[in-house]
Specification:
Number of helices of chain B: 0
CATH architecture of chain B: Beta Barrel
Number of strands of chain B: 6
CATH topology of chain B: OB fold (Dihydrolipoamide Acetyltransferase, E2P)
Order of helices and strands of chain B: EEEEEE
Bound molecules: iron/sulfur cluster
Strand order of the largest sheet of chain A: 1-12-11-10-13-14
Largest interface: A-B, 14 and 15 residues
Largest sheet of chain B: 6 strands, antiparallel, barrel
CATH class of the largest domain in chain A: Alpha Beta
Shape of chain A: globular
CATH topology of the largest domain in chain A: Rossmann fold
Oligomer: heterodimer
Radius of gyration of chain B: 11 Å
Structural class of chain B: mainly beta
CATH class of chain B: Mainly Beta
Strand content of chain B: over 45%
Helix content of chain A: 40-55%
Shape of chain B: globular
């Protein structure tokens, strides 16, 4: 449970790699590193965004998951067709807990699974006719939808359907955007390429269309901003939004948690894009910077230290009034934050955490843990690129572990040796570690809790970590008949 | 030849971005950097080297350009 020295950490990595065949070990070696804060360029120490090794248990998803599950899925007033066999959409349905306001099935559709349910004949004869029919039926059954996206699953690319042609025709017919997204699961090495493809499809099919024929009644203001890359998991975007609004900014769009089509269309007129999930939406931010001259800024709303830093950074793009407001907001929440820290820090101080999440949180939540006196001793991403590791190296302490696209085996071995006090990862990892007797929080879906963003979120975050770590169940891991004599007599005496 | 995007960082340095490989890096040197003649060989912090046809400096950043890869690590 003690922190490792650099040599111990290196030795641990070498030991874990021993079971692999030589070639596999060589490849995996590149993805495991011991943090060295003096390194400027992460690619000197860690390889990222590479194809996973066949035969190992990777925890990654596919491009379809990146587009339908992450970027497009939460746009609530559009209908997203999972185009292909039924499983991809059904097994991932409503898994990400993107909260939204609206009447599901009437004017919002996030939780419903729309699929073209491919059968053998669709694979043999092509599914374009079916797609056109589905769009027609959707229009009839759900007339309040604002548009449709076609999220391709693997077979679509394999059989060579022309979904673009269908989309163009259908769009002209129904007078709404129909966006074909070429996010077949086999593209790229992880869900990351799906984010990129989805971003590009917004650029090509929403912004372009917007420029041509949408005349929206929208008066731009001097303090308009858009929240980019917040998926409103458990209400995250809402607890972020109130802080920005208290600062005097007007949040015009949420990308894409609780977002709508018109919000996407309004975004090219805002003054600043504030970017939370860099990994999944930097592409569109860069595009808007070039095309519409909108600057973007990365921010981090996990934990009071980072929130204050971020509020000041965002305010620095505006006039002194907003800057003063930012200070006022920080001041206003200070008593609440102090109370949270006073309550939970003594219970959590010094506890060691290992993280393994998607493409942003492995570095973003570090500050929140540190605010509670906890220490992150290992972190890693499923699908980060090297620019994410560049940003991570600075956040982590020296001689901590970094692991990219970690395999199930490696993760278990690391945990067995290091025995952290808490692990933050996803549902697939949860029960393995709980059965090993180690407290666990799901850091993708907040373990059905949340929000964790913003000051209100921090209070919930602190409570949840305490609830998990100091749960009395962890002392009941050894059954009574295996307990040592003395502890039994001690218990009797007590 | 690949499309690249060049923008200026907060400190005024040039930042190189290659969308195809999602590669972002600072430019450490650029062969020509004046209003009339701009471009040529550019060197990245990661050791990579690209060539942009010398041209008048772009009116505003970020901007997308075509560049040729001369030498890149990996
Ligand atoms: S990899 Fe293909 S088949 Fe599997 S979930 Fe993704 S889109 Fe569906």
């Amino acid at each position: 449970m003690s922190t490792l020295t650099r040599e111990q950490a290196e030795a641990l990595i070498a030991e874990v790699l021993e079971v692999y065949p030589e070639k596999a070990a060589k490849d995996r070696r590149k993805h495991l590193a011991v943090n060295d804060r003096s390194i400027e360029q992460s690619k000197k120490c860690i390889a990222a965004n590479r194809k996973s090794l066949p035969g190992v248990m990777t925890i990654r998803g596919c491009a379809y998951a990146g587009s339908k599950g992450v970027v497009w899925g939460p746009i609530k007033d559009m209908i997203h067709i999972s185009h292909g066999p039924v499983g991809c959409g059904q097994y991932s349905r409503a898994g990400r807990r993107n909260y939204y306001i609206g009447t599901t099935g009437i004017d919002t559709f996030v939780e419903i699974n729309f699929t073209s349910d491919f059968q053998e004949r669709d694979i043999v004869f092509g599914g374009d006719k079916k797609l056109a029919k589905i769009i027609e039926e959707i229009e009839m059954l759900f007339p309040l939808n604002k548009g449709i996206t076609v999220q391709s699953e693997c077979p679509i690319g394999l059989i060579g359907d022309d979904i673009e042609a269908v989309a163009r025709k259908a769009s002209a017919q129904i007078g709404k955007p129909v966006v074909p997204v070429r996010c077949e699961g086999f593209r790229g090495v992880s869900q990351s390429l799906g984010h990129h493809i989805a971003n590009d499809s917004i650029r090509d099919w929403i912004f372009e269309r917007n420029a041509q024929d949408v005349k929206e009644p929208y008066e731009p203001g001097p303090y308009d901003i858009a929240i980019i890359g917040d998926y409103n998991i458990g209400g995250d975007a809402w607890s972020s939004r109130i802080l920005l609004e208290e600062m005097g900014l007007r949040v015009v769009a949420q990308w894409s948690g609780d977002g709508t089509l018109s919000e996407l269309e309004y975004t090219p007129k805002v003054k600043l894009n504030v970017l939370h999930c860099y990994r999944s939406m930097n592409y569109i931010s860069r595009h808007m910077e070039e095309k519409f001259g909108i600057p973007w800024v990365e921010y981090n709303f996990f934990g009071p230290t980072k929130i204050a830093e971020s509020l000041r950074k965002i305010a620095s793009f505006f006039d002194s009034r907003i800057q003063e407001n930012a200070e006022r907001v920080i001041e206003k929440y200070k008593p609440m934050v102090d109370a949270v820290i006073a309550k939970y820090k003594p219970r959590l101080q010094g506890k060691k955490v290992m993280l393994y999440v998607g493409g942003l949180r492995p570095r973003h939540v570090i500050g929140a843990y540190e605010d509670l006196g906890m220490e992150v001793i290992g972190t890693g991403y499923e699908f980060a690129h090297n620019d994410d590791y560049d940003r991570t190296i600075k956040e982590m302490q020296d001689a901590t572990l970094l692991y990219d696209d970690i395999t199930g085996y490696e993760f278990e071995e690391f945990v067995k040796r290091i025995r952290p006090d808490l692990i933050g990862s996803g549902i697939k990892e949860k029960y393995i570690f709980q059965k090993m007797g180690i407290p666990f929080r799901q850091m993708h879906s907040w373990d059905y809790s949340g929000p964790y963003h913003g000051y209100d979120g921090f209070a919930i975050f602190a409570r949840d970590m305490d609830m998990t770590l100091n749960n009395p169940c962890w002392s009941k891991m050894t059954p009574p008949w295996l307990k040592k004599e003395e502890s039994l007599t001690a218990a009797k005496a007590a | 030849m690949a499309n690249i995007m060049i923008r200026r960082s907060e400190e005024g340095r040039y930042i190189f971005y290659l969308p195809k490989r999602d590669l972002e890096d600072t430019i450490v040197s650029i062969q020509f950097d004046s209003a009339e003649k701009w471009g040529g060989e550019i060197r990245l912090a990661n050791g990579g080297c690209y060539y942009i046809e010398p041209q008048p400096a772009p009116a505003r950043f970020p901007c997308t350009l075509r560049a040729k890869r001369l030498d890149a690590p990996e």
